[in-house]
């Protein structure tokens, strides 16, 4: 299927590896030119080179912390202030117990996983509306539908973003701009490795055993793949996705047993 987005320009955040890279790769495969962002410069530059060489598109890396005003300013400058596609993404806050977190912990989580995405939408969506076309995909978490106790900081921030998008998406759809969220369950990324390491340490089991136990709770009996996640993102950015507005698409291997 031709997704009809060849020649568009996309900003993909946290794209040097993991789910962000999966999204960047899938968009590049459709002929989309990219500005990609991450904090680690070396890995980001390597990723940019690999994607550009593989897909013959323009890929500009911007090493910056997207959760800060300065980082966003640098990325927006590289875009010339406009993009056709925006994929927001940022690493999740650390796990813990609800009694451990103070106000500063919550502010950092909200800055990183809620307000940074909102700021990017506020910067780029008005231009999309003026041009009559745009796509926004926010990478959130399956935890916004089934909160995970030890990820309370992430639950709080990402659920706030979900609420914002629910209202905002309906206000821009008539201008050809579709805003949606992708909700990943456990995927085979550094985040999963870190969570498994935490379980390993807490329960006195090996990391392999921790992973095996988690995989056993997923109907597919496996972690997700970044490339499959990226393909879902690319479809939400397609011309064919024009009637998908304000939705929360779950990619969790069926782990969450719900009807809606």
UniProtKB/TrEMBL annotation:
SUPFAM superfamilies: NAD(P)-binding Rossmann-fold domains. InterPro entries: NAD(P)-bd_dom_sf (IPR036291), SDR (IPR050259), SDR_fam (IPR002347). Coiled coil: none annotated. Transmembrane segments: none annotated. Belongs to the short-chain dehydrogenases/reductases (SDR) family. This is SDR family oxidoreductase.
